[in-house]
Amino acid sequence: MCTETTKLKAFLFPWLAYGHISPFLELAKKLADKGFLVDLCSSPINLSFIRTRIPETYCSSIHLVELQLPDLPELPPHYHTTNGLPPHLHSTLQKALKMAKPNLFNILNTRKPNLLIHDVKQLWAAGVASSLNIPSARFFTSCAAMCSYFSHLFVKPNVEFPFQALRLHTYELSSAHKVVKEHREDDDPEVRAPEEFTGMMLIGTSREMEGKYIDYMSEIIKFKVLPIGTLVQDPMASVDGNMEIMEWLGKKDKFSTILVSFGSGYSLTKQELEEVAFGLELSHVNFIWVVRFPKGENLSLEEALPQGFFERVGDRGMVMGGWAPQAKILTHSSIGGFMSHCGWSSISESIDYGIPIIAMPMDLDQPMNAKLLVEIGVALEVVRDDNGALHRENITRVVKDVICGKSRENLRCNVRNLGEKLRFKNVEDIDAAVMELTQLCHDENKSKNC
């Protein structure tokens, strides 16, 4: 796509969450494969995570760039990430990142990229790039269904959303309306309503999965939306396969085990932990459960989970704290389901590896993601009660249905077929997007020379 003497330089700027960084890293690899030189910018603590996930073959084409955030008393450097961040500090982290705008200006002025690709959570970054005559595109790291839903709430607040499959429960609606209200009340001139957006937006999905939502989003927002395919890491690129996990999985029957993980940015409440624990216990299904606690909360797994839980489940369950090689686990032959919070990166992996999803959305985009998965036939959702509370009986029922119930074969067939279609379509999507981005860079260079 680019010759050695004319390589274009792209500067990628994700939000400070692993669920956003991962697709940005996969996009960086795709751009590097097409001849781009790529800078990937984040906070130092996030770069330590990213550094271990860049294969050696990309060391000369993907460069990591540190962005220093200001020192705030309530937000020391180890909190410059959403991983393990206490929920009440999320807005403070967004504020701190925006306060780093002068640092980003200096970095862009020094690195002189041909293009900035920034997270939709950092719309202000486009203004920084524009002041340096650098073209930009935003990258939406979740699904088109969710983006079209929130855009609809902004633009047509009194009109019913046209797609029934994404109808939210009452407790989810209140959260969605709160997000819209906060955005409308933001007096920052760089935070605009969706109908005022211009330019180009990349989105990590495919028409194969979300054609009608991509079309509806484009109709509402009225700017170019480029699906770039689902961005999934190579499971063999994981830095640590954890032999103990692999040996344990090797003793389980095919499709007999579920992976339980709710992402790096969310910690279950005490009540949720208890309901999930009992739900898994009562299902009599094998499981690997990755449990995460907020930073500073030094609980042991024995303290956090119901008394006697480990003795009762025995070798049927493996519970671990912190991090696990999710991609490698999902590709193991014994895995038959993935209980997930429905973050888009996790969903994309599960579909690519042909694993049905037990949808247990927590917040933000996840309820829409879950309903999309149910609509396309690759997931069953654990429905909460009217107050948003989980119940062990519902968890047990869905787990058993996915692993050994009537829905099992249909779910497996659907997700396997979709994964195969997406792998083919993803190649076409990224090729088309790279052509558009290359043209954007060349158009800006022409205007500079006029």
From TrEMBL:
GO terms for molecular function: UDP-glycosyltransferase activity. Keywords: Glycosyltransferase, Transferase. Its EC number is 2.4.1.-. It is an enzyme of class 2 (transferase). InterPro entries: Glyco_transf_N (IPR058980), UDP_glucos_trans (IPR002213), UDP_glycos_trans_CS (IPR035595). PROSITE patterns: UDPGT. It comes from the Eukaryota. GO terms for biological process: glycoside biosynthetic process. Residues 13-219 form the Glycosyltransferase N-terminal domain. The keyword DNA damage does not apply. It holds the Pfam family Glyco_transf_N. Belongs to the UDP-glycosyltransferase family. PANTHER family: GLYCOSYLTRANSFERASE (PTHR48044:SF14). This is Glycosyltransferase. The lineage of its organism: Eukaryota, Viridiplantae, Streptophyta, Embryophyta, Tracheophyta.
